[in-house]
Amino acid sequence: MAEQLGRALTRRQFVSSMGLTLAAIPVASAAAVAGMQSAASPAGAGAQPAARPMPKENKLGDPPGRRVGIAVVGLGNYALGQILPRIAQTQHLRLAAVVSGNRDKARTVADAYGLSAQNIYDYAGFEKLRDDKSVDAVYIILPPALHAEYTVRAAQIGKHVLCEKPMAPTSDDCRRMIDACARANRRLMIGYRVHWEPHNLEAIRLMRKGEIGQPLQIVGQHGTPADPSTPHGEWRIRRALSGGGSLWDVGIYSLNGARFLSGEEPVEVRASYRRPPGADIGGVVADVESGINWEARFPSGLVAVGTSAYDYTVNHMFVHGEKGSIALSPATSYQGNEIRIKTSAGEEKPKVGEADEQFLGMLDEFALAVRENREPRTSGREGLRDVQIMELIYEAARTGRAVAVPPAA
Ligand code: NDP
Question: How far is the CA of 126 from the centre of ligand 1 (A)?
Fold first, then answer.
């Protein structure tokens, strides 16, 4: 024991080493213990507690009562792996409920996030959310073919909607979603997290500053193997639930990226299937395409070339300009994205924030749009635009012809 005391036990360690709890010893004795400790620790001599200023980098966020309460609808891979853990890290959002078809899973998730049994809903009882005043909004993280139905139902019970990409299987569905939210005066945002991704934002800043001159070509490559033997791979190869194949699921990042990085809207698309619907994916005949290549022309003369795949992994965006080029690789991952810029001055790898910030940026933008009663940055119109263009890419692949893209309404 003496030897232990010589090593300057904390008060808690000392008390615990005596088989006691802190509450079990009177304050005077505890003070004596503390005295023994500082006497035994020359390093601690004269040390006093001192107030420090609030660190600038640690934002506390709103107190719970001021945060926008959100119900997460669909407890799958993305919800559990990426979204739920980050809601607690936001400044303005609060997890208020979960909606799931699996009661046991929902109970486990609710326990993990401090929700009570009353905060668990199922799809049939979705409308009960109307009376849950702790829920201001829903975050729809279901397969795309369910996005329209749950957006409309949410708007009808007075809830704001954050909905995952792709917005829906058809542009008509997207319009129904926009109309329902507009009629109910509710906000509608699509979860385009990359719009808050620091490396992508840096690419835009460098482009607008003219660092690579006039952009001439954008190349977007996105691929991830779809595994129909997993719950989250199974629906991806079924059009009835997914709305489309690799273009709809991951190719959308190349298309949205080309529009977002360039700030332009395409006027014409061409496309061809590399692996059309009917190809084998993981031993199952898929009714969506697993590989498609497309090209989009923009008014400035810029051409974007996109590829998407369900049979290999790839994640890049390249912008080639008159005076240099920018490589985002990986471009749209959850973590670990990187940017390089190459000009006549040499090659640089700008240091920007962490890719992870994209989630908090997106979630807080939604909360603020709800609170400030304004259109969010990636509204339903942004989701509709991608779906319209992807429909035309499919038409171009089917017909083998160039298809004009009408201006956005
Ligand atoms: P999962 O299959 O892992 O999760 C979907 C969940 O939806 C299921 O777990 C289930 O939740 C619920 N669900 C309800 N009805 C069905 C049904 N008929 N078939 C399958 N699931 C159903 O998919 P993901 O999490 O990968 O994708 C969900 C959405 O998120 C999609 O729109 C996808 O495009 C999008 N996404 C977005 C990403 C991004 O980076 N922005 C990344 C990954 C996905 P429960 O059991 O609780 O009812």
Answer: 17
